Amino acid sequence: MQSFTLVVFGAPDSQSSSTALNYAKAVLKAGHHIYRLFFYQDGVFNACSFNTPSQDEENSSVNWQTLIQEHELDAVVCVASALKRGIVNAAEAERYELAASNLRQGFEISGLGQLIDGVIQSDRVVNFLP
């Protein structure tokens, strides 16, 4: 069994995000372990609870959340990327005196140190670029 860290750079409506999600499912189905999912740059939009795609489109954010919760995966959202794009958890919303938080349940906001840890701890690191 190998451990993986997946780095998702693409927004929810991108092929990059969809491919990363399918890859994550395949890794788990093959009996491997996902050490960490790291959402970076526009990939942080996958963690936004306000995403509302058209009715005829897949809701990638919900699909990620389901996978994360079903497999108890560590899903980290880069704090700098998230703040630049208006994605905050309750603590950041309070810190910046914002009216609401919009980080989807199952995701956590943290720094690049979590990515470095994932690189060190995993057998394989796979990047999904837009």
CATH topology: Hypothetical Protein Ychn, Chain: A
Give the domain tally: 1
Number of strands: 5
Integer average pLDDT: 96
Strand order in the sheet with the most strands = 4-3-2-1-5
Write a structural description.
With 130 residues, this protein is of the alpha/beta class. The chain has one domain: Hypothetical Protein Ychn, Chain: A (3-Layer(aba) Sandwich), CATH 3.40.1260.10. The chain contains five helices and five strands, in the order βαβαβααβαβ. The protein has helices spanning 15-29, 60-71, 79-84, 90-95, 112-121, and strands at residues 3-8, 33-39, 75-78, 107-110, 124-128. Strands 4-3-2-1-5 form a five-stranded parallel beta sheet, with helices on both faces. Helix 1 (15-29) packs parallel to helix 2 (60-71). The chain is globular. The relative contact order is 0.26. The mean pLDDT is 96.
Brief overview:
The protein is an alpha/beta fold and 130 residues long. Helices cover 38% and strands 20% of the residues.
Topology of helices and strands:
Layout: E1 3-8, H1 15-29, E2 33-39, H2 60-71, E3 75-78, H3 79-84, H4 90-95, E4 107-110, H5 112-121, E5 124-128
Parallel strand pairs: 1-2, 1-5, 2-3, 3-4
Helix pairs in contact: 1-2
Structural features:
130 residues; alpha/beta; Hypothetical Protein Ychn, Chain: A; 5 strands; 38% helix; globular
